[in-house]
Amino acid sequence: MNIGVLGGGQLARMLAQAGSPLGMELTFLDPSAHASASSLAHQLKGDYQDGRLLEEMLQTTQLITYEFENVPSESLALLHGKATIYPPPQALANGQDRLAENRLFQRLDIAVPDFRPVDDLDGLSQAIEQIGTPGILKCRREGYDGKGQAVIRHPAEAMAAWDGIQQVPAIYEQQVAFEREVSIIAVRSQTGETRTYPLTENIHRHGILRQSVACQADPMQQMAESFINRLLSALDYVGVLALELFQQNGQLLANEFAPRVHNSGHWTIEGAETSQFENHLRAIAGLPLGSTRLLCPCAMLNCIGKLPPLKEVMAIDGAHLHDYRKHERPGRKVGHIGLRAQNAADLQQALQRLNTVMETPTGT
Ligand code: AMP
């Protein structure tokens, strides 16, 4: 079976790794000269809107998925009627725009931090008056990993923040003093069968995910599942969907959803009966879904900017390095480590050791 993928980063790479034992071949479209997936799948090198390349993809497959949410609408228009695209493009339309996304959450009775749309500096001043500070000004489109965002601690910072995000349509959002950040990942099949992974607790550094730990029997699991199930049905979804949440005073508030496999679900490669990547492929290919059961205490650490020394990672029992084969650059996700343990105490100990190894300069 052939599957087309828009985007060839590490998520496409891990989809290719999951598809290989199932006999699935991936062809991906990506403009990059050093796409992470290129050593594992066939690359069509060029723009996402390149009609000739999209036609070439259609010659090998009519089943297309994507690994990033900013798929240009032109690409979707070119594919319209010629291919099945999963997850459905209406999930993209809502996921690409923070305002549409927050309004969808509200329609589905999913709690969100207080927010206002902001189209100009006056609008920002009004939003700050209504919501107060601290708050976060976020670009409506194309922001991720904390990019295109400015924290406003005092109303006097409004103008600098507005200039900082380059005066594009935005939302101003209350900054939540959360107790923890969590995410929930679910998969839905073409027949509407749904499976949900255990809740994941996430730690971010400078807006970028640093660490995820799979939660066992978490008290917030039920609320998170109820939220994501509403989204899955409303979007008539097929594939893997991730929902990022803040926990505050025993409540969950939605931050954003991603209509794709997600960084906070990488632990499922080692820690779940079926990984998020395999389940995404099963769902879009019309196959039965696999169990999402947690196998053991499990976590994931992102390698940001550089890879840690290989030998030292491997000296830690239960640690599994994933090298994305990307050039090292500050702030860039170049790999991750999946970590399995016998019990929660061992997991914490291994996490501490790994965190020390990650800070060690490479080559030592
Ligand atoms: P985002 O790109 O929206 O996922 O934001 C990246 C990170 O910034 C989140 O994971 C949070 O750590 C933080 N953040 C974003 N929005 C808020 C908010 N309204 N309140 C508190 N922290 C936030």
End-to-end C-alpha gap? 44 Å
Rg computed from alpha carbons, rounded to a whole number of angstroms: 20 Å
**Approximate helicity band:** 25-40%
The largest pleated sheet is described as:
9 strands, antiparallel
Low-confidence stretches: none
Outline, from the CA principal axes? globular
Which secondary-structure class do the elements indicate? Answer: alpha+beta
Instruction: List the secondary-structure elements in sequence, H or E.
Output: EHEEHEHEHHEHEEHEEEEEHEEHHEHEEH
Heterogens:
adenosine monophosphate
What do the pLDDT scores average to? 95
The total count of helices amounts to 12
- Give the beta-strand count: 18
Proportion in β-strands: 25-35%
Report on this model:
By secondary structure, this protein is an alpha+beta fold. Helices cover 30% and strands 28% of the residues. It has 12 helices and 18 strands. The protein has helices at 10-19, 51-60, 73-79, 89-95, 98-107, 121-131, 158-164, 221-234, 268-271, 276-284, 310-314, 344-359, and strands spanning 2-6, 25-30, 42-45, 63-66, 84-85, 115-118, 135-139, 149-152, 170-174, 180-188, 194-196, 200-205, 208-214, 239-248, 251-258, 298-304, 319-323, 333-340. Strands 10, 11, 12, 13, 14, 15, 16, 17 and 18 form a 9-stranded antiparallel sheet that branches. Helix 1 (10-19) crosses helix 10. The longest helix has 16 residues, at 344-359. The chain is globular. The N and C termini lie far apart (44 Å). 44% of the residues are buried. The model has no long low-confidence stretch (mean pLDDT 95).
